Amino acid sequence: MRDADDAGVPAAAEDAPRRRWRDLAILVPVFGTFALMPPLIAIPLGWGALGGVPAIVLYVFGVWAALILVAARLAGALTPRSGAER
Questions:
Q1: For residue 68, what are the domain limits?
Q2: Contact of 45 with 55, CB cutoff 8 Å
Q3: How many distinct structural domains can be found in the chain?
Q4: Any transmembrane segments, and where (predicted)?
């Protein structure tokens, strides 16, 4: 049992936010895989074009850009801060 003076936080409570970010990082490639599978990638085929660029191209590069932005955000959240204890 811990004393009232002990200001430490249990290890499980300290790692919980980091674990959530790590779990989300695992789901990003899964989302990307499903977003670029033929049934979903065929949806923009009927949308026509925007500014002369086919909607399918905008969809593919939009998904690609979104995956990069999410991965960058996750990398920042998962990178240990300087001076932080592990």
A1: 12-78
A2: yes
A3: 1
A4: 24-50, 56-76
Residues forming a β-bridge with 49: 54
* 1 domain residue, yes or no: no
With a CB cutoff of 8 Å and minimum separation 6, the contacts of 23 are none
Q: Return the residue matching tokens 């969809």.
A: 59
In terms of phi and psi (left: phi > 0; alpha: psi -120 to 50; beta: otherwise), the region of 83 is: left
Query: Tell me, what amino acid is at 44?
Result: P
Which two tokens mark 22? 């790590």
